[in-house]
Amino acid sequence: MAHQQMPSSQKALMLELKSLQEEPVEGFRITLVAESDLYNWEVAIFGPPNTLYEGGYFKAHIKFPIDYPYSPPTFRFLTKMWHPNIYENGDVCISILHPPVDDPQSGELPSERWNPTQNVRTILLSVISLLNEPNTFSPANVDASVMFRKWRDSKGKDKEYAEIIRKQVLSTKADAERDGVKVPTTLAEYCIQTKVPSHDSSSDLLYDDLYDDDIEEEDDDDDEAEAGGPAGDMSADCYGDEEDSGNEES
């Protein structure tokens, strides 16, 4: 390999990795699965505050093809996820990761699909947006989609969907502790661009407070309505207008 010319995809990935390390995306940690392999990245996603995913620590792999950025990578969650647009095996179904072919059956425009101007940063922003605003037109998980719509249409009174997400968030606590990661639970913490993961034993206190609050809020539908309805309020987060992905069903 040392005598061969470096593939252009490897150069592109080296530049992207350097950019993401110097200017991280809020709410994410990026590392290589193995130092010698630029084509497999591990991503840790922190659940955004003011959403069902608040306090969560979700791990995923991004696998890049040899002809990146001309072909899209795959994005697969390692953490168990219950979501309309995530398959049972963890694969994320999102337009931006689909090859730019003309497929009238999909209901997607070619402009919504992958193109070489996209990058890891745009993928991460799309995934975090999708978590909070599922696309229920062509779900990867039909049961989750039906449950999400009941929750959304009932303005949070049908709690089944929210309960499953909260249990999944709670179950990620052990992973965060094992990795020595303090998960941000406030907007101020979430918006800090962390270049080095912090090792802070006070995270247990944050978690205890978070889940005590959740139990109290569970009994009060009005709290949920004041927080901006079932979808929560992400309008005040770090991304500004990025979150208005327009992929929620009307």
Describe the structure concisely for a colleague.
This protein starts with 7 loop residues before the first helix and ends in a 24-residue tail after the last helix. A hairpin with a 7-residue loop joins strand 1 and strand 2. A four-stranded antiparallel beta sheet has the order 1-2-3-4.
Residue share in helix: 25-40%
- Tally of extended strands? 4
Please identify the structural class as seen in this structure. alpha+beta
Specify the number of helices: 8
Strand content: 5-15%
Question: C-alpha Rg, in Å?
Answer: 19 Å
CATH topology of the domain at 8-181: Ubiquitin Conjugating Enzyme
Description:
- This protein has helices spanning 8-22, 120-132, 142-153, 160-171, 173-178, 187-190, 203-218, 221-226, and strands at residues 28-32, 40-46, 57-63, 74-77.
- It is of the alpha+beta class.
- The chain has a domain at 8-181: Ubiquitin Conjugating Enzyme, CATH 3.10.110.
- It is globular.
- Residues 196-237 and 239-250 have low confidence and may be disordered.
- Keywords: ATP-binding, Nucleotide-binding, Phosphoprotein, Transferase, Ubl conjugation pathway.
- Pathway: Protein modification; protein ubiquitination.
- InterPro entries: Ub_conjugating_enzyme (IPR050113), UBC (IPR000608), UBQ-conjugating_AS (IPR023313), UBQ-conjugating_enzyme/RWD (IPR016135).
- It catalyses: S-ubiquitinyl-[E1 ubiquitin-activating enzyme]-L-cysteine + [E2 ubiquitin-conjugating enzyme]-L-cysteine = [E1 ubiquitin-activating enzyme]-L-cysteine + S-ubiquitinyl-[E2 ubiquitin-conjugating enzyme]-L-cysteine.
